[in-house]
Amino acid sequence: MNNTDRVKDFKKNDSLELSLNYFHELLEPTEINQIKDIEHQNLPIIFIVGCARSGSTLLLQYLASSGAFGFPTNFLSRFYYAPYIGAKLQDLLFRNDFKNEIWPKQDASIFSSSLGKTKGPLAPHEFWYFWKRFFHYGIIQKLSSEELVKIDFSLFFKELNALLFYYQKPFIAKGMICNWNLSFLAKLDNRVKFIFIRRDTEKNAISLLNARKQFFGNENIWYSFKPPGYEKILNTSPLKQVTWQVEKTNNDILDELSAIDDSQYITINYKSLCESPLGIFDLIIKKWNISAKITDLIPTEFNYNDS
Fold first, then answer.
1. 299 in a domain, yes or no?
2. Which of 97, 99, 108, 303: CA 20 to 30 A from 29?
3. What phi and psi, each to the nearest 5 degrees, are found at residue 150?
4. From CA 75, how far away is CA 98, in angstroms rounded?
5. 276 in a domain, yes or no?
6. How far apart (Å, rounded) are the C-alpha atoms in residues 163 and 27?
7. What total of structural domains would you count in the chain?
8. DSSP 8-state class, residue 135
């Protein structure tokens, strides 16, 4: 998404980008050396997939709050080039800050967000920079077989394996950026699992339309990932575009999932998540034999709305 089109609150910060690039060059070689000999961790690597505005952020926040999963935090996202080192620093600065000498307690709701953005250093993050470190997408988010074979999947899975080792729990993150290459990813490593979250098409489309207004101040500018063929509907109304976006994205995901073993994915509904989150949680942990202790943070239901 073009930075110049974004409203002020969603523009990239040039100073931050420079800092990220500096530490990327400084720490990535050390990271690669640190993780190269970590033994194989036999734990699930779970990616949440689906259309934008389908409830993926709430699902990630909810599962993160259970204590049963490791996940990328806002702090860890700054170390997308060295997430294992970032996780170690996270321990030093947050989990071992027993008297809140460095960081005050966070008062923000653990289930609040704005277009996928959460508040607080230990709140879940979308982790897109980590994906883009390996997957070099163009205008659309589907890579050809020729482009896929150029990706350093050995390092990609070493990084994820290191996070499994660090957390000693299944690792869960958003994976919608890879919606159109799920079957390829699944066949590379049987630890890879997918949770496909779907939302009522009309409600999802309206939410996407609202996101365009919030992010760009203009409902005519495309928001989020572009399915193959999107250019053919650009001369239609914004409402028809977002409706097509939801339907096309979901159908493409179904095609991808049909090519992998059903032991590697679960399909859930956003409304069901809101009405019975414990039921969804139970479904997931039983599907993949995940040891879980439910904390007091997990609610019995969420408010189901159309935003």
1. no
2. 97
3. -85, -10
4. 18
5. yes
6. 16
7. 1
8. -
Instruction: Tell me phi and psi for residue 11, to 5 degrees.
Output: -75, 145
Q: Hey, how many other C-beta atoms are within 10 angstroms of the C-beta on 225?
A: 20
The answer to whether position 256 is within a domain reads no
Strands 171-174 and 265-269: unpaired
C-alpha span between 12 and 254 (Å, rounded): 33
Higher pLDDT, 93 or 49: 49
Does 253 fall in a domain? Answer: no
Give the model confidence (pLDDT) of 106-131 as tens digits: 544 578 787 778 888 899 999 999 99
pLDDT for residue 108: 46
Quick: pLDDT tens for 192-241.
Answer: 999 999 999 999 999 999 999 998 899 999 999 999 999 999 999 999 99
DSSP 8-state symbol, 124: B
225, containing H or E segment: none
Q: What is d(CA 289, CA 129) in angstroms, rounded to the nearest whole number? A: 30
Of 151, 144, 172, nearest to 59 (Cα)? Answer: 172
Residue 169 has phi, psi (to 5 degrees) of -150, 160
Tokens of residue 230, six digits: 């999107």
Tokens of 307: 């935003």
In the chain, beta strands by DSSP E: 45-49, 171-174, 192-198, 265-269
Cα separation, 201 vs 118, in Å, equals 25
Residue pair 55/195 in contact (Cβ under 8 Å)? The answer is no
Is the Cβ–Cβ distance between 254 and 194 less than 8 Å? no
Instruction: Assign 3-class secondary structure to 58-120.
Output: HHHHHHHHCCCCECCEHHHHCCCCCHHHHHHHHHHHHHCCCCCCCCCCCCCCCCCCECCECCC
d(CA 305, CA 274): 9
What is the total residue count of the chain? Answer: 307
Q: What's the mean per-residue pLDDT of the chain?
A: 90
Q: In this structure, which amino acid lies at residue 191? A: R
Per the CB < 8 A criterion, the answer to whether 169 and 46 are in contact is no
